[in-house]
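Reading a protein record of the kind used here takes only a little practice. The record below shows the convention in full.

——
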Amino acid sequence: MKLFVCQACGNVLYFENRACGRCGHRVAFLPERETMSALEPDGEAQAVSWTTLADKGRGRMLCRNAEYDACNWLTDPGDTNGYCRACRHNGMVPDLSDPAQLAGWRELEVAKHRLFYSLIRWKLPLQNRQDNPERGLIFNFLADDPNSGQRIMTGHDNGLITIALTETDGIERERRRLEMGEPYRTLLGHFRHEVGHYFWDVLVREGGKLDACRAVFGDDSADYGQALQRHYAEGAPPDWQQSYVSTYATTHPWEDFAETWAHYLHIVDTLEMASEFGMEVRPRVDRDGELSTRLRFNPYEARGVQTLVDAWLPFTFAMNSVNRAMGMRDLYPFILSQAVVAKLDFIHALLRDAARAGKP
């Protein structure tokens, strides 16, 4: 994630801003330029369309979900459906007449838009159900039914990603984290993991990379249902950290891929944010430089995964220590073994190939 600048006054803008805190201009994200733009209304009446100061474009429209304060993106030029590149992948949303469900949906949209920022940065193929009615990427945000007792499960099925609205309840999410023995559980983590399953279909199976993926992650033809039952009955093997980034990754090669994919997105987007702030780690006691790093590069364009890992480890060692000084959990409570780095390298190469293929 990047920092942005208001074109009207030069103030710093953040990704979720709706207005500039200094000059008051309405601001919105321009997905085709991957930047925030200050807006001015077209004409004298209350704005229906906007001029973008980032590129002097006229006639731009805010996404229809801006009406619910759930989106701050602009639609594409010439768009007729009224939704931005992220929101046109929405299927079902909660009952927006319920204030609690509306608030939860807004939280989900924050995480979803951060996900789409990364997907757009990599120029990944993004088909929705209008483009591909059977396998296009679509999100259903569903609430549990108190009358029937039906509980919504978060998951992926042939391009359909369901996110349980219950996950927006911080207390319930923490309860589930503890129940499942997870060191980390966030809305953004759910989105990044589940979309990993989708892109396994698109980039691996349909992209001719199945054999190469199996050589790294294992044989995905193993029965998934049985693997899931075994995981919940027996847990992860004692030495799981030697080969996997999380205990859930040990369940099945599909879950290993999705977990590793999610962690790759965590690493790249967090390093970009740290780089935007010009962060540098240089401990006084680090005489050999093993705990030092200078974040002055674009991680989305890193040539090799080792460049990312060499920056990530000192950065997270420092941030984990800072969090502990505040009595908080580690920012990144995971170990990157050599086997995990090799898996991250596969994801890195997969995304670089997709990015090159997606360039105009």
In short: Residues 86-207 form one domain. The mean pLDDT is 95. Helices lie at 99-121, 170-179, 187-205, 210-217, 224-234, 253-276, 305-325, 338-358.
